[in-house]
Amino acid sequence: MNTFSNEWEDKAEQAQISLFEHYWNNETNMFNNAYECNNCNGQFHYWWLAHALDTLIDAYERTNNEVYLDRSKALYESILKRNNGVITNHFYDDMLWMSLALLRLYEHTNDSKYEAAVSTLWKDIKTGWSDQFGGGIAWNKSQLDYKNTPSNAPAVILASRLYQKFGNPDDLDWAIKIYNWQKSTLVDPITGFVWDGINRTGNGNIDKNWEFTYNQGVYIGAGVELYRATKNRGYLADAMQTAETGVKRLVGNNTTNILKDEGGGDGGLFKGIFVRYLGGLVKEDPNQKDMAQFLINNATSAWNNKLAEDKILFGSSWERTPSLNLDLSINLSGVMLMEQAAIMEKLLADPVSISLLNEQLNGYIAANDIKGPLVPILLNSAKQAKHHLEMDRVKQAKMHLEKFQKHLHNKAHQNHISEEAKNQLISTTDLLLEQLGE
Predict the structure, then answer these.
(1) For the chain, which terminal residue's Cβ has fewer other Cβ atoms within 10 angstroms, N or C?
(2) What are the residue boundaries of the FIMAH domain, all occurrences included (predicted)?
């Protein structure tokens, strides 16, 4: 949905255009592994390309431009071809990233082949669970006794989203089971800081010294999605604690407060994962103005240190101008940051009001994210709420806003609304009801 025009939307679009211009390979219909690419595509980075899919869908949701959806579809087909016609993978965490991206692609296309791919992946991922060390999903299929955050927190996100989309209680059971293991095993109970894994070297130890933005980001995302699925605010509180601790511990310099450099290769994606799910937390609770401003500040620093005015490419450090031979992973993170800044700027600028709710609702309807019989139902509830507020009849307005929310949660309407539209409208209505008081 593209309702507003502002500085960060423009910058996000420029970053997306530059990513495509400098990394897309028309012969393979995939992104190259690096810029500049000299025989750089020998390795197939399945999980990088999963994030590339996610990043293209970010652009589509911001612009409603079908070009981004077409590129997503083409990229999926090329990934499948490069992966010998199958969508599964040796690494459980990599399959989770592909599942999350394809579930979003299904949301916007309603094409059953993406739903089928997610189902295949999810079935495979669940085989990685065992009771060793109390539970948890393994990192890969040849080391089943090593469990880590990258293979468990994203599984909570996926299972929670599947439950919200399709209503299968088994998915919610999986989400809660995995979350409880993750929290009890790999999260510092005092600070909420997330550790990387257990038994990596076969000695049963926990890797407490591996402090990555990646791990904090996926646990934040797990808490947010379980909150959306259950409305249990304890999950949101967990996410907030981890976010606050992560922001303090994972900046490179306490003076500038910019996230630290985690290098290239796989590490190039870590900050992008963190900012994506930190942004999701702020969207769920737009009162978190400090977190929104933190993301804007990081985006400002990255933008000011881009490669050149005509080459909007970012480095692994968001505080220094990069050199060339930049891994795709690094620039995916930079583009994710720009996309989050575009969302954060709106949240910082726009007060929560009945007018904002109506603007969001009409925008989603125009983008076909809400359709069918749900359209007149929601329009009528929002209209009635606005009318009563204008007449200072707060009690009646709240009644219609509560009805509005009930329709959003109604499983009979789930095929008529996208997850993004549903979650955003629920969040806005929650804040409106909170402002209106008891």
Answers:
(1) C
(2) 356-434
Instruction: Please give the backbone phi and psi of residue 188, each rounded to the nearest 5 degrees, phi first.
Output: -65, 120
Task: Please check the confidence at residue 109 and state whether its pLDDT lies above 60.
Answer: yes
Region of residue 437 (left: phi > 0; alpha: psi -120 to 50; beta: else): left
**Dihedral sign for Cα atoms in the order 81, 66, 422, 10:** positive
HEC letters along 110-138: CCHHHHHHHHHHHHHHHCCECCHHHCCEE
Gap between the terminal Cα atoms of the chain: 32
Question: Whole-angstrom Cα distance, residue 302 to residue 334?
Answer: 7
Query: Strands 34-35 and 326-327: what pairing?
Result: antiparallel
**CB atoms < 10 A from the CB of 258, how many?**
21
Structural contact between residues 378 and 362, judged by C-beta atoms closer than 8 angstroms = no
Place of tokens 């750089």: 40
Beta bridge partners of 326: 35
pLDDT-derived band at 5, boundaries 50, 70, 90: very low
| pLDDT tens-digit series, residues 118-139 | 999 999 999 999 999 999 999 9
- Tokens representing 64 are 């409603």
- pLDDT, residue 233, reads 94
* Residue 191: both structure tokens together: 């600070």
Write down the pTM of the prediction.
Answer: 0.85
